[in-house]
Design brief:
heterodimer, A: 585 residues, mainly alpha, Clc chloride channel, CBS-domain, 3-stranded mixed sheet, 65% helix, 5% strand, B: 150 residues, alpha/beta
């Protein structure tokens, strides 16, 4: 006590300065403290997630489970199927939370919802992803981890009643921190935040919080998991004189990434054709098929770190490696396009290690002695960068996973060239293209606001319908009572078109035709909207037909309407919000 | 909108043989075959018949005005069919139809379509003109009536 008193006396001036200091110094310190806390909590969240997956993986791995229960191992093929069933059930029960999946949903929430991620969504993804990955789906934990970390950052910001600017900062910090913890790779976590969530915006004020949170979460991860890397890297030999082969492998990685994207895109189209918007139910046949494949190729079960280690230790003959590569590419695409909860980083590492190993083996067969283990590691960087548009994160992640300086130059080359190959061909990064598909254009410096507004958010449920057989005089009476027009339906209550006041002015003015016409004669057969369409799409259709409202239809039945004035109103509101945000930064 | 003559032609006036309303519609729609008005006569006839099934366009006074808007119609136009014997059109006054005015419009020609229908109806409500047209001996005579009508 006496010591504390003397210390206080000695540093009295410093204490006074701290408490009377300018507001921004205190705020700065507060930011560090919050970032540390969020990093630690995101790290803990990632560890809970990791533990859940590991527990399930070990407990119900087909081989272990069969031995333990002393039952024929073929019965165990049901495990991925049960996982699929639970995932489908969860998706059906919580459709709102389910659709906010993947890394792009974090980007969306940072860009459009001030970093807000509801805690229920975070918890949903913690459980759903653990079930998906724990029952053997060949996907990775990074997307869900980032969602969990970002969600926790967002939730703590809400609890602390921080403003929207700070909420964005800590959502980004939480996402990066979780990646840092799950891969035991803090620098990669920081660059994941920059490259993926902030879309390379290095000026963003979230950067310092991101660094602090990533370090804190990595400390949690190291305390829990120890200092061991996820991968067991064997002794390997590579030489800088092999430069042309590094370059060639980089291009091969870019091409394989593009092939995977093409495969994935075609599977998506096929799924849509079969099930429309309800593709998650296809997870069941996919899981069943995968279960039988896993029965033969057990190494495909789960995230794949064990498979990477086996490949690196030269465990498989070439024909098995080729088979594993083909099956991994196919099933990752089949799973990811059903909407299963998992990421692409870990599968990229598996695909990369197989590609790199096969590449070196092929040249060795031709008489050029290349070390397959070394090239397998380079391949990891190449595919990770190519498939995910994260060249810097890929370099740092593979470096942090291997802890070997010798590999850094070839990985830099493989990552950058593979990334450039994919970006050159696709005319944009993976996340830019995915967000564009969802109607959010982030390729330019500004967001196309109209594309970011979903019809669902401006849907009006108080609309008036009229049967197509209604005589014109009754139609006109109803039309005059309506707000802007009527939605015309047939005898089965299915959508036919609309009747707009502007379009029937002639009919209103001329009494000659009233007895001749019925409602169907004045219908405008305009395409309807779906809830998931964007406001930009709605405006385009309205302009095309010169009308100021459209029907929103689900399975041919009208569920609402969208009016021109509501689009303009929400547009103005969002522009004002964005301007306020820009001024605050 | 110009004169009614801008929307029809002597080729589109026909003296009908059919006495059944659907056959008469089919016969009259045939005048647009091979013209730049309609590229899918089958679909046009189907649309006219479908509309007729919902509610008759036989508005009484011996007149029927079947009409349809269709994607395959490229130019708004009308055809006139005269039936001396009369067609059972299930008209609202129960009388047989002696003059069928068939109106064709494109899906996007909504306003012109209503204007043309209004103009045709206004002409046909004139008893003298209507009787003159029904009693006309040739397509040329009908064209002259339309030319002189104000």
């Amino acid at each position: 006590m006496k010591k504390l008193h003397s210390l206080l006396k000695k540093y009295k001036y410093h204490v006074i300065v701290f408490f009377t200091a300018r507001y921004d110094i205190r705020e700065y310190i507060l930011q560090i403290v919050i970032a540390l806390c969020i990093g630690a909590i995101a790290g803990l969240g990632a560890m809970v997630f990791h533990t859940l997956i590991e527990w399930m993986r070990i407990a119900i791995n087909p081989k272990h489970f069969a031995d333990y229960l002393e039952i024929p191992s073929i019965i165990i093929v049901i495990i991925p199927v049960i996982g699929g069933l639970i995932t489908i059930g969860m998706t059906k029960i919580f459709p709102g939370q389910a659709k906010e999946s993947g890394v792009k949903s974090i980007i969306r929430s940072v860009m459009l919802q001030n970093g807000h991620i509801p805690i229920v969504t975070t918890l949903f993804h913690l459980v759903a992803s653990a079930v998906t990955l724990g029952t053997g789906a060949p996907l990775g934990p990074e997307g869900p981890s980032a969602k969990i970390g970002g969600g926790l950052g967002s939730y703590i910001s809400t609890l602390l009643r921080l403003n929207s600017r700070k909420k964005i900062t800590y959502t980004v910090a939480g996402a990066g921190a979780a990646i840092s913890a799950i891969f035991n790779a803090p620098i990669a976590g920081v660059f994941f935040g920059i490259e993926v969530i902030l879309l390379n915006d290095l000026k963003n004020e979230s950067l310092s919080a991101l660094v602090i949170a990533s370090v804190a979460s990595d400390m949690i991860s190291k305390t829990y998991l120890g200092n061991n890397s996820l991968l067991q890297i064997p002794v390997f030999h590579i030489d800088i004189t092999e430069f042309p082969y590094f370059l060639l492998l980089a291009i091969v990685c870019g091409i394989i990434s593009l092939l995977f994207m093409g495969l994935s895109h075609n599977i998506k189209k096929l799924y849509k054709k079969i099930k429309g918007d309800d593709v998650i139910v296809l997870l069941l046949p996919v899981s069943l098929l995968f279960a039988f494949v896993v029965f033969i190729y057990n190494d495909l079960f789960g995230i794949g770190y064990a498979l990477i280690n086996k490949v690196l230790s030269n465990h498989f003959p070439i024909n098995v490696l080729i088979m594993l590569l083909v099956l991994k590419l196919l099933f990752v695409a089949l799973y990811i396009q059903t909407g299963a909860y998992g990421g692409l980083f870990a599968p990229s590492l598996v695909i990369g290690v197989l590609v790199g190993f096969l590449f070196a083996s092929f040249f060795s067969y031709l008489g050029v002695k290349l070390d397959p283990a070394g090239y397998a590691i380079i391949g990891m960087g190449g595919i990770l960068a190519g498939l995910n548009s994260i060249p810097i994160t890929a370099i740092l992640m593979v470096f942090e996973l291997t802890n070997d300086y010798r590999i850094i130059l070839p990985i830099m080359l493989a990552s950058v060239i593979s990334h450039l190959t994919v970006t050159f061909y696709n005319k944009g990064t993976v996340y830019e293209l995915e967000l564009l598909e969802d109607g959010l254009d982030v390729s330019r410096s500004r967001i196309n606001i109209l594309e970011s507004i979903q019809v669902l958010s401006i849907l009006k449920k108080d609309f008036q319908t009229i049967n197509a057989r209604t005589p014109l005089n009754q139609t006109l009476d109803k039309l005059l009572d309506s707000d802007s027009g009527l939605i015309v339906i047939d005898d089965n209550n299915e959508y036919v078109g609309i009747v707009s006041i502007n379009e029937v002015r002639q009919a209103l003015l001329s009494s000659n035709i009233v007895e001749l016409l019925i409602c169907q004669d004045i219908v405008i057969h305009v395409e309807s909207l779906q809830k998931i369409d964007s406001a930009a799409e709605a405006l385009k259709k309205m302009d095309k037909h010169g009308i100021d409202f459209l029907a929103v239809v689900e399975k041919n039945k009208v569920v609402g309407m969208v009016q021109h004035r509501d689009i303009i109103s929400i547009y103005n509101k969002l522009v004002m919000q964005l301007e306020e945000k820009a001024m605050a930064m | 909108m110009g004169s009614l003559l801008d929307f029809t032609d002597i080729k589109y006036i026909k003296f009908l043989k059919s006495r059944n309303k659907y056959k008469a519609i089919e016969e009259l729609a045939g005048v647009f075959k091979g013209t730049d008005i309609c590229s899918d006569i089958k679909a046009f006839v189907a649309a006219l018949k479908e509309r007729e099934e919902i509610m008759t366009t036989g508005i009484g006074f011996g007149i029927a005005v079947p009409h349809a808007k269709l994607e395959s119609i490229h130019k708004i136009a009308f055809a006139i069919g005269i039936s001396k014997k009369g067609i059972d059109f299930n008209s609202i006054d129960g009388r047989p139809v002696h003059m069928v005015v068939l109106v064709a419009a494109g899906e996007r020609q909504h306003k012109d379509y209503l204007k043309l229908l209004s103009k045709i109806m206004s002409l046909l409500k004139n008893d003298t003109i209507r009787v003159e047209m029904i009693n006309a001996k040739s397509a040329k005579e009908i064209i002259n009536i339309l030319r002189n009508a104000k």
